[in-house]
Amino acid sequence: MNTPQHTLAAALHQARRIVVFTGAGMSAESGIATFRDKPDSLWAQFNTRQMATPQGWRENKQRVWAWYEGRRGAVMATQPNAGHAAIAQLAGTLQRLHGHEVQVDVVTQNVDNLHERAGSASVIHLHGSLFAPRCMACHRPGEFAPGEPDASLTELDPPRCQHCLGYLRPGVVWFGEDMPQDAFRQAEDLVDTCDAMLVVGTSGVVWPAAELPISAHNLGKFVAEINPTPSELAKYMRVQWPTSAAQGLPQLLNLLGTA
Ligand SMILES: [Zn+2]
């Protein structure tokens, strides 16, 4: 059959290395976007300059730390959806069908940990992670204070670095900051060596992340998009399947098992 999902399944059957590139739409059905829409939530009081720039941190690190701890707590209260689960099962499903090793790497713009919690083994975070704080002074990874984060606090002292006693900062990329170079380079290497790229739940407007699907297309790779509406990247896609992550990806996994 010549539907988008059948063309996509046929391409994945041929692939040994697959990159899944995800954005906010991937986590929307886990309730993370809904949280953003609540009028009384921390999100509603979001002020970009205060909460997501190095200047905001210098002005009031207690306010910034409390806000990110609230976001981390909100993510911990959600669950990976059926789309995250299907991505985590993709490599194993193809391996069982074909008897050879298949590698699936996730490259995500999301700062939540839902891919990891669903069981994906290889996840690259292009915009950092709410779960990877680091020291402002020596840049080494830090640890959270024990206990559940309290989303009701508006100010909270950041924990201190166990090495140099500097303050820990949230491990996300702020406005005016570069993307982590190691993560971006790893993602570029994966794009260079993959056979197929699956783009899920991203509008394709955040740069330089959006370069990755375009570069996959320019290298002649099979690139497909799963988005309810076509993204800015649609013209680079061999296939555009208009569906959501939590609906489309489990269907795709079923189709792979039966086709
Ligand atoms: Zn330190």
UniProtKB/TrEMBL annotation:
GO cellular component, one term: cytoplasm
Keywords: Cytoplasm, Metal-binding, NAD, Transferase, Zinc
Localisation per UniProt entry: Cytoplasm
Entry note: cofactor: Binds 1 zinc ion per subunit.
Amino-acid positions noted as binding NAD(+) in the UniProt annotation, renumbered to this chain: 109-112, 201-203, 227-229, 245
Residue span(s) of domain Deacetylase sirtuin-type: 1-259
Listed PROSITE patterns: SIRTUIN
Family: Belongs to the sirtuin family. Class III subfamily.
Domain notes: 2 residues (Tyr-68 and Arg-71) present in a large hydrophobic pocket are probably involved in substrate specificity. They are important for desuccinylation activity, but dispensable for deacetylation activity.
Function field: NAD-dependent lysine deacetylase and desuccinylase that specifically removes acetyl and succinyl groups on target proteins. Modulates the activities of several proteins which are inactive in their acylated form.
Name under which the protein is recorded: NAD-dependent protein deacylase
